[in-house]
Amino acid sequence: MEHSFTPVIRKTLAAEFRTVAESIFAASPILQYLNIKTRAADRGSKSRSSFANLYAIYVLVEDYVKKGFAGTGRYKTYKGAKFSDLFQRQRELPFGSKLQNHALNHRLNEEFHKFFPTCDYLPILRNVETNRYWFNEHLLTVAVGKRKYNIARALLNVIDAYVSVKQEAFARFIHACEKLSDLEKTSKDEAIEFVTGLLSPNVDARLFEIVSYSILKAYYHGQTVFFGFQLDDVQEEPLALYKTGRTNANDGGIDFVMRPLGRFFQVTETTDVKKYFLDIDKIERYPITFVVKSELSIDELKNSLRDKAAKLYSVTAIVEKYMSCIEEIINLPLLIARFKQTVSDGRLKDVLGEIVRQSKVEFSYDEE
Questions:
Q1: Bond from prior residue into 201 cis (ω within 30 degrees of 0)
Q2: Where in the sequence is the domain holding 37, given as residue range(s)?
Q3: Mean pLDDT (whole number) for 37-47
Q4: Do 88 and 140 belong together in one domain?
Q5: What is the pLDDT of residue 251?
Q6: Are 45 and 94 found together in one domain?
Q7: Which residue, of 210, 256, 334, 348, has the fewest CB within 10 Å?
Q8: Residue 105: per-residue pLDDT
Q9: What does each C-alpha distance from 254 to 76, 188, 358 come to in angstroms?
Q10: Does residue 210 share a domain with residue 153?
């Protein structure tokens, strides 16, 4: 696989290994894996950055290098790195402050095996009883001819270079949002095109959730309902949308919640019926609105879910019970339409400002 970051990997290897760099690159599964995972470098801040799996590699290999195991043969007697130390270090890295433990525990190994099913080695070794971790040293050693080369430092340098590229891209993204927010009155068309571009199918899942929230928060702003416990005490209440936590969090299928109606919203990329029904089950089959990163029509999405559900469940009543819990589906065309409505209502700057605020928090962006 060749992409814009591949020459950076080659350059990094050449700086350390000179004439054998290309042979090492071709022979190393873990370097090939890094090449796959860094293909987002040329897609700006809007694409998936794969930090979770890359940082799982980084913190273990960094532990290996810092403790002087490279080329010594002593690593096989090492008692292993503590999970707490690895997890803390992972969260100290750029964009890593909210990463969870899944990559260290199983996701990296699962994905690596998917890409390299014939490789005899998995990257992470783990002792469940002691909660100690190692990086598989077989993947850190590459044989070229009769000589073996340790690529641990090169792996760290490649990931450092990738992170630097993504930091620059995200800084440009934040700057563009702020600039468009400041110039909202004079560059409205440019601002609209910018936000609409953030609603394309290839956008990073976290950014899509942030943009969806920013649009819907502005869209519902100003809408009211009449609410009260007694007829003589009914009051007009504004609708307010709240973000319940970090994106991609294990929060039981609640990404946003609306007051005072108590509506739940879940943002998703998938059309897998099992995922939808799992989210419904998590909240005891409470009605939920799905914001779906799909250009399929709402009827197509609903029909697809119903057809897939019918194949899973032979009882029509069960299928209809689940389907009745889907309060609304908001697809990309509807989200764009609601964004255009917010623009017409004069709230474009609110959308842009919210995108900036939420992005800085989510991606741990430090202007300093």
A1: no
A2: 6-166
A3: 59
A4: yes
A5: 47
A6: yes
A7: 334
A8: 87
A9: 44, 32, 17
A10: no
